[in-house]
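INFO batch 0412 | record 1 of 1 | parsing
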Amino acid sequence: AFLAGSPGHPDIWGSALMSPCWGGTLFLAEVQGLPQDPRPCSRDLYGFHIHDGKSCDGTPDDPFSNAGQHWNPEHCPHPEHTGDLPPLLASCGYALTLFYTRRFVPEEAIGHTLIIHDRADDLTSQPSGNAGKMIACGQILANGQ
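INFO prediction complete | emitting tokens
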């Protein structure tokens, strides 16, 4: 997936790669241009999820409205959705994450959207962790197409 920021966050860009590994997925993402909070002790954490929509299109008021909701084919409570990913931890607007999951294999994620939210996922609130607005989106494609 190639990630791009919303009109309100045009400096965000990045990419995510998924590889099959041990019956699950090895997931790597690199993102730049994330908003920075200059206050001391700020938490530059961002919700990061796979959504069930097929595109990053939307309306002027909701630029990624077609990205859909959290990908949750098993109808599990949050944060046990298939598409619930670890939050992005940024430093100076940059985030790099690498993790392994058995919640899905890469082929199952193709065609969905990858979303960055403007707040950290609280891992509690239903249905989606109170992670705030969608500030970046990328469509998950096969072989980086």
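INFO post-check: The mean pLDDT is 94.
INFO record closed
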